[in-house]
Amino acid sequence: MTALVLVLGDQLSASLSSLRDADPASTTVLMAEVMDEATYVPHHKKKIAFLFSAMRHFAKALEQKGFAVRYVKLDDADNSQSLFGELRRAVNALQPDRIVVTEPGEYRLAAAMQDWQRRLNLPVDILPDDRFLCSRQDFETWAKGRKQLRMEFFYRDMRRRHDVLMEDGEPVGGQWNFDHDNRKSPPKGLKGPKRIRHRRDPILTEVLELVEARFAGHFGTLRPFHFALTAEQARRELDHFMEEVLANFGDYQDAMVRGEPYLYHSLISAYLNAGLLLPMQVIRRAEKAYADGKAPLNAVEGFIRQILGWREYVRGLYWREMPDYATRNHLNASRDLPAYYWNGKTKMACMTSAVADTMQHAYSHHIQRLMVTGNFALLAGVEPKQVCDWYLLVYADAYEWVELPNTLGMALYGDGGLMASKPYAASGKYIDRMSNFCSSCHYDVKDATGEGACPFNALYWDFIARNEAVLKGNPRMSTIYASYNRMATDRRDALRQKAASLLEGLEML
Ligand code: FAD
Ligand code: DLZ
Ligand code: SF4
To answer: Closest residue (by CA) to atom 15 of ligand 1?
Structure first.
């Protein structure tokens, strides 16, 4: 029996379910760089360069293990530029007895795959992606019958189930969550630690030239290029994070500083999502850092919660709610995404900084995504589909299974509170507290209605006012509505007038 194993660009793990038990003597692995995947949204240049280079390295590693690898480069003469097209060509050339593939991360591809067996007239085994720590079935079991799917309870369950940061059946330190010790404002002059860099290799040089030539019109800058491309390089970054950075992760998790895109974040999401790192490998490494006294519990618990909790939770939610999740728009938001999301040209210093980091690094950290670009789109009422497409293409770690719940659910409240118990809406005051952006901004964060007032302020109160019918019943919004309704009528009128003029001139801010 000969098998053809299709490995996708975000399945670069030696332990992948489709490869784990494959016999190199009777297996050919197919990997293909195709325009269909590179352009279903026009991904950031760095994201394409990262994936193509990492794919080529992974193919080499498989060859070293004895597998025959059919690797199709983007510019190969007969490349059909679609995954199915490449599968069909390989089937015609190799005449395998069956096809094996690990289930893909995105619904669109999973739906298309259902038809491959019929179209190829060959058995197609689609195996579960067990690199995740909660299977789709286990998430269903957890979610079934619950009125609310709150991440915190899911996370506690995962801690128990995987015995992570547990001692005699209790959470280490006596609490599940240490967030009250986290999330400090940035002190003046806060800088992130220096990050390690990897040596350029011939594979990367060739791919950078390819991306420069073929994707010139895509978002973002390509060079300098800094991503790890192999599991070994990603592990070195992880080790460096654990030794030098994790200790301050909790304290400055929500801090934002101009010119410091990374601060104390791990920068591992692109590696986890492409398979160069595995979630349990990262979690056990963080537990070890705690045991070795390299980092305090508030940092280690907060970090582990992101991976064991949030990452698994959003994946479970995605598969449970798709396909209609992608079309939800609970607040009926319909404005167009302003041009500064693409070029960073706005007088709002916080938005310029978040977009500039994104253009340069295909990265910005969680609070910039949530409380700057996400918050602004929420307050301005931008149509969720346009916002989601933007997030899906601009970040090197973006795949729909993780991007969509975070954007549509967490940032935009588009799912009506399935994911977030209340909208993450905030005025300029929050951004001022957590960043140094406002001191160098054209706008005045202390003003809400004057000529040079911070746009986030009036837009925030307008968001509260215009969504009153939908949000008022939410108990977590009651203090906000009480404050709003206590405001003098003149003040409320002034805020709404200011917001109307801001929305009218949204492109000009
Ligand atoms: P750290 O802050 O160091 O966190 C460690 C790890 O925890 C991350 O690498 C990631 O794997 C995981 N993690 C943390 N928060 C989340 C979360 N909310 N959901 C899932 N995993 C999480 N993350 C993506 O991986 N891909 C996306 O496309 C993506 N889109 C987002 C869109 C919006 C609007 C928002 C608000 C968040 C999004 N996130 C996404 C989550 C989060 O912002 C990124 O995982 C994080 O910024 C990656 O940087 P890091 O590796 O330095 O993370
Ligand atoms: C994101 C991406 C890109 C840019 N290119 C490819 C590619 O050429 N070949 C490939 O196999 N995968 C690529 N990917 C990753 C896929 O889009 C990803 O596997 C699906 O979205 C499922 O998560
Ligand atoms: Fe952003 Fe307003 Fe601060 Fe300017 S003043 S940086 S627009 S929050």
So the answer is: 306
